[in-house]
Amino acid sequence: MIKLNRRGALALMGGTAASTLATPALAMNKKIKVGALRFTSHSGNFVAYERGYFADAGLDVEFEFFQAAQPMAVAIASGDIDYAVTAISGGLISLADKGAIKVIGGALKEEEGIDGQSYLISDASYQAGTKTLKDLDGKKYAVTQAGSSFHYMGAKMAAAEGISLSFTPLQKVGAIIGAMKSGQVDGWSIVPHIAKPLAAAGAWHVVGKVSDYIPDYQVTTVFTSADNAANERGMTESFLNGFSRGVDDYAAAMIDGTADQDVMVDLIHKYVYTDRPREKAAPSIINGTMRLAQNAALNIGSVQDQLSWFQSEGLVDADITLDTLVDSSYVETTGA
């Protein structure tokens, strides 16, 4: 098993309802670090911590917050954090190929009937006549990096529409928002808490749903180091158990309407949009609601589709198998 420091991991990245989980062997107050972004989609972890579900599972959790997904993958590979949630990217797959990380479960996913990620056209392009996704043919489509989930979403839509896109890497979501507002790029796709309010303000136009082009898309996954997956089974099961209880509470309040949404928004606001007063943060928290997989179930068919796309684009090695990326022994898998 390869043990990576932060520098080595960064080099690799640049190279290319109740839980039905098995009852975990309690980790006995085991101290772990969990990587997170301050997004509504990470609420499973926040709820599990605030309501004592991690503690019930024998874990003493400390959060480490990141500004983007890629540094979380590096931190997992280097052993600086133990568990995290992120989208599948070329960098993540490359780290798995080096024996550094494993996907062990599912988190955010597209589901019919629930607001999800949207395809957008900048207002400048829209006013100039780019009204539909097909009209984006030959135009600039924003991504963070080549091999990101944004790249995958744009490419899947372009293939379905029979168009060609000029993928434009801008590194950070904030930079993409600025480029969309100023008309420097023409199209993008993003989660609803960003898409909807800025569409209402006239910054861009929502012209399609990601779920129409990528049904049942497993947007983010739960992952850990390959060492934890192989050698810390009790701790890993404990983490997934606590996380899944948090997801159940989140879904009950934010999606299913069987628990108090206001109470849940108060809890999430401790971590998300903390720089805003609660009354201003609440709409964005609610707009960010998407389905998180119950019991961390993993859509293995979606993961395989993503892996195959990255390989077809030459972004990762062609001989990487699904088993290299995923340890499917922890949760139920679907879509095979």
TrEMBL record:
It comes from the Bacteria. GO terms for biological process: alkanesulfonate transmembrane transport. Residues 1-27 form the signal peptide. Gene3D superfamilies: Periplasmic binding protein-like II. Residues 40-251 form the SsuA/THI5-like domain. Keywords: Signal. GO terms for cellular component: periplasmic space. InterPro entries: SsuA/THI5, TAT_signal. It is found in: Periplasm. PANTHER family: ALIPHATIC SULFONATES-BINDING PROTEIN-RELATED, TAURINE-BINDING PERIPLASMIC PROTEIN. Belongs to the bacterial solute-binding protein SsuA/TauA family. This is ABC transporter substrate-binding protein. It comes from Actibacterium mucosum KCTC 23349.
